[in-house]
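In this supplementary section we document a worked example of the pipeline. Step one takes a protein sequence of length 355 as its only input; no multiple sequence alignment statistics are reported here. Step two produces a three-dimensional model, which step three serialises into C-alpha cells for compact storage. The input and output of this example are shown verbatim.
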Amino acid sequence: MDKFSFIIHPLGFDDFYRKFDWMEKLPESILKKATKHVPPFKVSKITGIKSQTGKEIKGYFFACPLTSEQMINLKEEFVINKIIKTVKKCQKVGSNIVGLGSFTSVVGDKGITISENVDIPVTTGNSYTVATAIEGTKLAAEKMDMNLINEIVSVIGANGSIGKTVSRLIAKDVKKLKLVSRNLNKLQKLKSLIKSENNDIEVTYTDQIKDALNVSRIIITVSGAVKTLFSPQDLLSGSVVCDVARPRDVAHNVNGKRNDVLVIEGGIVRIPGDVNFNFNFGVEAPNAYACMAETMLLTLESKFTNYSLGPDIKINKVKEIKNIAQKHGFKLAGLRSYGGLLTDEKIEEIKNNIR
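The serialised model returned by step three reads:
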C-alpha cells in the first residue's frame, strides 16, 4: 500500500500544551530554548483513506517541533535543517511522498532547498489550496447573493505563492481586483501580468490592508502572517472573507462581534473513506486541509514527484490537481466557519442582519 507523510508543527505553545500538558507549567522563555533541541517525531498514523476508484492509502503525521514564530524568527538555515531532518524521518517509515504543512512550506524558498537535500519527493500542497480557496469564495458569494462581476475583490498576501496564483485565477471572473501586500514593486509586476492575461479588468494595489477593506466586500486572505491582520470593525457590512491562512488572518472575535459578515475557512476538504487521523489538528475527520489533501491525492495517483514548490504555483498544476481530486472523490467540505459547518439557515440569518 502506498504511503505518505505530512509534516505539522505547533502554531503556538498552546499546541504543545495539548500534546504535552506538563509543559504548561514551564515558563515560555524556557520552552523557546528547549523546543529548539527537540527532535522531530511521529505524531500519529492516518488510516481509512479510500478513493472512489477503490484504491486505499495510509499515512503519518510527523511533527517539526518549532512554533510559527520560531520558524520566522530563528536563523533560516537552522529551521530548514530541522525540516530536512523531519522529512528524512518520514522517509524511514516508508513514505513515498511528504507534504510540508503550514510554515514548513513557507521558510526560505518554499520547499526547493528541502527537496534538493532529501531523497523523497515533497510538496507544499499549495496547488490544491489555491483551487479550493477560489471554489469556496465563489460558493460563499453565490450563497450571499453576490455577483463577483459587481464587486471589488481583494487578495491580501497577493505576492505570496498562493496569493499570486489566486489573484491570477480569480481575475478571470471579476472586473475589479485589488492586490494587497507589503512589496509595492512586486505588486506592480503582478498587476502587469494580470492585465496582460485579462484585457477587461481594473487592477489596483496597496500595501495598506484597510485601504482594501474600506472598498471591498469580497476578500481572500492568504498572508502567512504570524498574527491576525484585521479585526471585526475593519470589515464592511455584507463582507465575505475567505481566510486561507494558517494561523488565521481574521481575528476570532469577528464571529462574536459582527453578525453581518460571512467569514469562511478556506481550503477545507472532505476526504473519502472511513478516515481516522488519530490526532486532533483542528479539523474533524473526514475533513482535512487542502494542503494535506494534495499530498493524499498525489499518493493515490502514485505521482511521486516534487509538485507545488517555489514562489510560483503553476496554473496548469492547479487545474491538474483539481481534476485528480474529482477523480478520487475529494470535495470541498461545504462552507465552514470557526470550526463548524455553515448551514443555509445561518447564512440566511447573516443576510437578514445585513438587510
